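Section 5: illustrative case.
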């Protein structure tokens, strides 16, 4: 029993050592644009260091604040078009990983690209 508890504790510490910090996850997103494409359209998200964000969504503009919680990026929309809440939950939380400008990836049926600068 003791060996099992020790093994689990060591494994948890090892995972924590490899977990990226908020600075590592977000540093390339500040001042750049996260382009998100899904079957409905394209949105562009702009993250700020003060934990606010703006998005130019295919539904209209969205503003609010963000938090990293349990390894996920959670967007708390505060001002948004009426139809936004019909499509997205608040908060909207998705997995987050370290990406550099130019990276493209797909998650949960969405295509993502981190592009340099603020792209409208």
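Designed sequence:
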């Amino acid at each position: 029993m003791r060996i099992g508890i020790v093994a689990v504790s060591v494994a948890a510490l090892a995972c924590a050592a490899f977990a990226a910090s908020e600075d590592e996850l977000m540093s390339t997103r500040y001042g750049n644009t996260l382009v998100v494409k899904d079957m409905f359209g394209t949105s562009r998200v702009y993250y700020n260091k003060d934990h606010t964000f703006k998005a130019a969504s295919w539904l209209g503009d969205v503003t609010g604040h963000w938090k990293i919680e349990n390894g996920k990026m959670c967007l708390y929309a505060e001002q948004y078009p009426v139809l936004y809440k019909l499509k997205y939950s608040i908060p909207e939380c998705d997995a987050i990983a370290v990406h550099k400008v130019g990276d493209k990836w797909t998650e949960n049926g969405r295509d993502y690209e981190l592009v340099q600068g603020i792209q409208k």
